[in-house]
Amino acid sequence: MTNLVNQEIDTRNLPDDNGYFGEYGGSFVPPELQEVMEEVAAKYAEISQDPTFIEELADLHEHYTGRPSPIFHARNLSRAVGGAQIYLKREDLNHTGAHKINHCLGEVLLARRMGKRKVIAETGAGQHGVALATAAALMGLECDIYMGEVDVMKEAPNVSRMKILGARVIAVKSGTRTLKDAVDEAFKAYLRDPVNQIYCIGSVVGPHPFPMMVRDFQAVIGVEARKQMMHMTGRLPDNVVACVGGGSNAMGIFSAFLDDSSVRLYGVEPAGMGLETGNHAASITCGKPGILHGFRTLLIQNEKGEPLPVYSIASGLDYPGVGPQHCHLHDIKRVQYTTITDREAVEAFYALSRMEGIIPALESSHAVAYAAKLAEGLDRDETVLVNLSGRGDKDIDFVMQNYPLADYEPGAESGNSYKDFLSRIQSRR
Ligand SMILES: *Cc1c(COP(=O)(O)O)cnc(C)c1O
Q: Does 198 lie in the same domain as 105?
């Protein structure tokens, strides 16, 4: 099916009519909810071809979010790495500081078209909650955000933001009181009143049609980036790198390049404290097929098929499953999935801050770290385009407390400084 929100890209006829990307995706929900999913899918099919909807969304992108987000040639980082030229797609400059506003605006417009009074969603670190509360405030809709109690305590500034924006934050007290439990509760709430509410999921996950819909809304990143790279360099990028939690920012940028066989695509998963420690959230690298939150995915699970607790320094990457289209792109080897540890991400966080004056989100730092490794082994006239999914303001207190600056100054004895980061990259030559 042609992507209808962004007519220019062809996403290879996926998903199929039942919402499958190869053997992943689908819709595993109770019958009551299946009816609702079909209603959402039908309405989406309708509005995604409606010029007034497309225009309204494009207008918000331009005048509210500040799109198109620029692409910046990170010359200092490229020079320091000593290989390919690194370019950053600056989703960190969007209103609310990350790519999530792209699909939240789309979902809230859809909610209004469906006559819903209230939008509901889960949030982990609070980024999706803030983006959705923002869009709901703009459109005059009520907004309920389900958030694990642990996260509510950890992410006080985002909880305040959501409340200021008029959202109700519901602290979830079940299970480990984190993201997975918040999704469970939000689904339960949806079931209680699917007439007045709509679930606005935070990534390319969940039952059909959400993985398709969120991808289409995020595809604006790739459509812009393709044109911008042609304009800046006269050709397509040789490599595109994005971090993968649920996978929405990565699907957003990848989808414009899927049919360009010359463009190598890399998805970066969180290796946390190291894959060997078990404390990670690398679902594609280490997961097995399973069902979570209404869709078939690669899942980090125990023998009974229950999701295991996962971990990453970046809360936005901390999810035991992953978007079904990523699982498929892995199967057909169109995208190469790789991992970056917490420590490598923090080094990249400091390196980009010091070298380019851009403080990246810890999630995005995973993509920057891998891009630096990749660029090092390439020629100077090659290009690596990184999706800088968000800004690091939300992470500064955490990083300063847990990864003291002194350990990361050039020449620091700890062996953690960004200069050591670069020399380690260079020692791989
Ligand atoms: C939420 C978030 C992510 C992870 O979500 P995806 O769906 O994998 O894109 C990545 N970066 C930032 C800045 C985020 O807020």
A: yes
* Judgement on whether residues 108 and 204 belong to the same structural domain of the protein: yes
Task: Give the strand pairing for 168-172 and 142-148.
Answer: parallel
Q: What is the DSSP string of 331-371?
A: HTTSEEEEEEEHHHHHHHHHHHHHHHS--B-HHHHHHHHHH
What integer is the mean pLDDT of 98-103?
A: 98
Q: Whose CA is nearest to atom 3 of ligand 1?
A: 316
Indicate the pairing of strand 85-90 with strand 71-73.
antiparallel
pLDDT, tens digit, for every residue of 251-298?
A: 999 999 999 999 999 999 999 999 999 999 999 999 999 999 999 999
Does residue 7 carry a pLDDT above 60? no
Nearest CA to ligand 1 atom 10: 363
Atom of ligand 1 nearest to the CA of 91: 13
How many structural domains comprise the chain? Answer: 2
- Among 363, 366, 387, 391, the mutation site with the greatest number of ligand 1 atoms within 8 A of its Cβ is 363
Q: Is the CB of 389 under 6 A from ligand 1?
A: yes
Same domain, 288 and 412: yes
- Tell me, what's the pLDDT at 428? 52
Predicted confidence (pLDDT) at residue 1 exceeds the cutoff of 80: no
Same domain, 279 and 421: yes
pTM for the complete prediction? 0.95
CATH number at residue 178: 3.40.50.1100
